[in-house]
Amino acid sequence: MANTLLLMVFWLNLLMIKPETASQKVLFKMAEKYFGDNAELVLVTPDLEANIQGEFYKVVGVTTAGVGFIGKANGRGHQFTFAALFTSDGKILEVKVTEYTSAYGTEVCNTAWLKRFRGKSAESLTLGVDVEAVSGATISSTGLVTKLNQIGKNLKKL
Question: In this structure, are residues 83 and 27 in contact, taking their beta carbons and an 8 Å threshold?
Fold first, then answer.
């Protein structure tokens, strides 16, 4: 019994993510902000119906507290990287754009606009109803909302 427990702890420590990329660092800071300094990110590979490219993380401490995601959304002729943190029941805690390389649509990076996602259900966002599109970044804001909806519809499988 003790050997099994030690083996489980060993494997869990291997799965714990130590932030290396800029996006992982952002997600890690968001997890600490909402779930405390003991929050850890564990990379998971869920079996999803939708083809969602990106990395899913369970945020764990004493118990599973939430879900993090790092991935890409479509902009105008390009993709941009974002990090998002969700409660275990699918509400958005925070969204941050971590890499945006295009000269067009940079308004989607605006933190005041991104705060409007907080508390919304990730699986049923409607642009123009739940969150207004950003002037000058309509395509990027549409891409972000579309991706958040895809993620939200699959959170229950994690």
Answer: yes
Place of tokens 């990379």: 43
Find how far residue 84's CA is from the centre of its chain.
Answer: 2
> How far is it, in rounded angstroms, from Cα 93 to Cα 33?
10
pLDDT digit string, tens, across residues 26-74:
999 999 999 888 888 888 887 776 678 889 898 987 566 899 999 999 9
Three-state secondary structure of 116-142:
HHCCCECCCCCECCCECCCCCCHHHHH
Q: What is the pTM of this model?
A: 0.81
Q: Can you read off the two tokens belonging to residue 146?
A: 């579309």
Q: 40-44 and 92-99: which strand pairing? A: unpaired
CA distances 70 to 2, 25, 44, 96, Å, are 36, 11, 12, 10
Residue pLDDT, tens place only, 123-149: 889 988 999 888 888 899 999 999 999
